[in-house]
Design brief:
By secondary structure, the protein is of the alpha/beta class. Strands 4-5-6-7-8-9-10-13 form an eight-stranded parallel β-barrel, surrounded by five helices. Helix 5 packs parallel to helix 6 and helix 8 packs parallel to helix 9.
């Protein structure tokens, strides 16, 4: 061993500094900008066509998240929608849960690793097929509370939830180098009252909470297009029996610069008793998606990933004029099984997406949970007194033990 001092210095360097370097992220995430102009989305000033797939993570085991999101990417989508059930993330008032099966930050990381943008649906009402629209049951403990209104007690609780979400997803927005490009509020609203004021209050609450680097969208029906607050884009839940251009004409009348987003292109689902819900013919669904792209629009596909919902996660629907609960909801018509593609519809939709959707393969929004140890170039100019008391090194032609 001709240069023992160098070995000692290197070992000491690793001992002192390696633990610090293991937690360092020396590569900055690249920030991106999503905007719109003249009816088109622009990502970093380039035209961007959104092809989104709804990913109901609360009905898919965590162990399948990475695989299924990978299948969504392979299918040709560039965005994944995450509907966040308030009931799961604040099961008790003031107590938040973003761990294990509720780890939305991990979901964003997985999406980013697959080159997908994230479209958050924060609600507070996220889906008619979930019990209470995904809102927590404890809201009903207050008999005077009026949900989905401007009532202060309700809005205070919504604001607290939004702030917890923003804190959990800090640094995950597109402008900060993360994958979250869109934040969606509410679902089609058919109740009376100050609907426009309610939508505007949700928008303001999200911005105050910290969601300020994303585009805001609102799931809306044609009847509520005029109630969209300034700064929010309509994600139109259109009549699937109409031609796409006819459905979208109302959006253009509100604001010609609005990009067309067709929300809720759905597929057949069945409840546990086998009753068909949200029935859409495969061919009609494909033609609907085709029409959206022909109209330079963007779309959200629902019921693509195979998922199952049970108990309190299941919602209810009206079938033949009767109110029927979903004891359980299964993705009977889902085009992607947990093993990958399923059937001709998946292949047809995949071909359509790949022809029309902007791909994100050049994005560098990589996960922060997979960090590499980076060792900088170093040089030593002197010796520490530590080495002065060490025994004289022994030179040997054969290997010896350290002792």
């Amino acid at each position: 061993m001709r240069h023992p001092q160098r070995l000692y210095r290197f070992l000491l360097y690793l001992l002192l500094f390696a633990p610090l370097m293991m937690g360092c992220d020396n590569g900055k995430k690249e920030a991106h900008c999503i905007a719109y102009d003249s009816g088109l989305f622009l990502l970093d000033s380039s035209v961007f066509v959104v092809g989104a797939v709804d990913f109901p993570y609360y009905g898919i085991p965590r162990s399948y998240w990475e695989r299924t999101i990978g299948h969504v990417k392979e299918m040709g989508a560039n965005t994944v929608m995450l509907r966040l059930p308030w009931m799961l993330h604040e099961p008790k008032e003031g107590s938040f849960n973003f761990e294990e099966e509720n780890d939305v930050r991990l979901l964003c990381d997985i999406a980013a690793d697959n080159g997908l943008l994230v479209w958050l649906h924060v609600g507070p009402f996220i889906d008619k097929r979930m019990d209470f629209g995904g809102m927590p049951w404890w809201l009903l403990e207050n008999k005077n509370i009026r949900v989905r209104t401007l009532q202060q007690s309700f809005m205070d609780r919504v604001g607290r939830y939004f702030r917890a979400l923003a804190a959990e997803l800090s640094g995950m927005q597109l402008g900060s180098g993360g994958p979250i490009a869109f934040v969606n509020i509410e679902e089609p609203y058919y109740l009376n009252g100050n609907v426009k004021g309610y939508f505007a209050a949700l928008y303001d609450s999200l911005r105050v909470a910290g969601f300020d680097n994303s585009l805001f969208t609102l799931s809306v029906s044609k009847e509520n297009l005029l109630k969209i607050p300034s700064g929010v884009l309509p994600a139109l839940v259109a009549d699937e029996r109409e031609n796409a251009m006819r459905s979208f004409s109302g959006v253009k009348k509100v604001n010609h610069d609005f990009p067309v987003i067709c929300n809720d292109i759905n597929n057949t689902t069945k409840d546990v008793s086998g009753v068909a819900m949200d029935v859409y013919d495969y061919n009609r669904r494909y033609m609907r998606a085709f029409e959206v792209f022909e109209a330079n629009g963007s779309l959200l596909l629902r019921n693509v990933a195979d998922a199952a919902f049970y108990g309190h996660q299941a919602g209810a629907a009206v079938v033949d004029g009767k109110f029927l609960p979903y004891a359980a909801l299964i993705g009977e018509g889902a085009v992607l099984s947990r093993a990958g593609y399923r059937g001709d519809e998946a292949r047809r939709l995949s071909e359509l997406l790949k022809r029309n959707v902007t791909q994100m393969s050049d994005m560098e929004t990589k996960s922060q949970s997979n960090r590499l140890m980076m060792l900088p170039v170093v040089s030593a100019e002197g010796f520490s007194s530590l080495f002065a008391t060490m025994p004289k090194p022994i030179e040997s032609a054969v290997p010896l033990t350290f002792e």
